[in-house]
Amino acid sequence: MAKKILEVRDLTVGFPREHGLLKATDHVSFSIEEGQTLCIVGESGSGKSVTSMAIMRLIDYAGGIIAEGKITFDGEELTTKKQSEMNRIRGERLAMIFQDPMSALNPVFSVGDQIAESLRIHKGMNAKDAWNKAVEMLKLVGIPEAEIRAKQYPFEMSGGMCQRVVIAMALACDPELIIADEPTTALDVTIQAQILDLLRRLKRELRTATLLITHDMGVAAEMADRIAVMYAGTIVEEGTVDEVFRTPRHPYTVGLLRSIPRLEEEPGSELYTIQGSIPGIGELPQGCRFHPRCPHAMSRCFIEEPSLLAAKGKEGHRAACWLEGIPEVSTR
Amino acid sequence: MTEPYLVEAKELKKYFPIKKGLLGRVVGHVKAVDNVNFGVRPGETFGLVGESGCGKSTLGRVMLHLQKATGGEVRFEGRDIQQAGPKELRALREEMQIIFQDPMGSLNPRFLIRDLIGEPLRLHRKMSASDIDDRVIELMNLVGLDVNRRNRYPHEFSGGQRQRIGIARAIALNPKFIVADESVSALDVSVQSQVLNLMMKLQKELGLTYLFIAHGLNVVRHISNRVGVMYLGKLVEVAPADELFARPGHPYTKALMSAIPQPSPGQKRDRIMLQGEVPSPVNPPSGCRFHPRCPYAQDRCRTEEPLPQPIGFDREVACHFPLTVDL
Question: Taking every annotated instance into account, which residue ranges of this chain make up the domain ABC transporter (chain B) (predicted)?
Answer without folding.
Answer: 7-257
